[in-house]
Amino acid sequence: MSVRTYFQVLDDTAADIISDKLDLMPRISARLERKSLMTTMRARPVVTVIVVLLALLILTTVVYALGRLTGYIPGVGFVQKDSLRVLVEPVSQTRDGITVSIEQVVADSERTIVIYKTEGLSLQAANSEGEGGGNPFGSVQQLRLPDGTTFQELAGDNNTPEPILNNIKTEGGWPNYVRRLVYPPISSDVNELTLLIPVLQNMPVGAAAENWSLTFQLKPAPADVTYAPIIEITPASQNVTTPSPVAGEINPPALLNTATSNGFTLQLDNVIELQDGYIFTGNLSWNDSVFPTGNGMISEAVIPVLKDANGQVIPVEQVPLDWASQEHKTLWSFRTNRKAFMGPLTLSIPSIKTTLNPPAVDFDIDLGSNPQVGQIWERNQDFVFAGQTIHLSSVQLNGNCGVQMYDLTFTFTSGLAGIYAYVNDLAPQTPFDYSCEGGGAAWENGNPVDSKTFYAAARYRNIPTGLHQYSMMASIPHEVNGPWQVTWTPLLTSESTPTPAAGACLTLDTWNQLSARNDPLPSGLGGKIVTTIDEGGNLPAIYVSNLDGTNSSKIDIGSWTSLSMDGTRLAYSGTDANYVLNLSSGEKTTVGIDGYHVVLSPDNTRAMYTTTFGLYVVNADGTGLQKIDTGSTQVISVVGWLPDNQTIVYAAMGGEGFTFITHNLQSGEARELFSFQNKAGFGTISSDGQWITFADRIFGATGWGIFISRLDGSERRLIVEPEVPTNYASVWSPDGQWLIINTLDANGKEIPVLVNPFACQIMPLNNVNGTIEDWSP
Question: Where do the domains of the chain lie?
Answer without folding.
Answer: 6-41, 75-220, 230-357+480-488, 368-465, 508-776
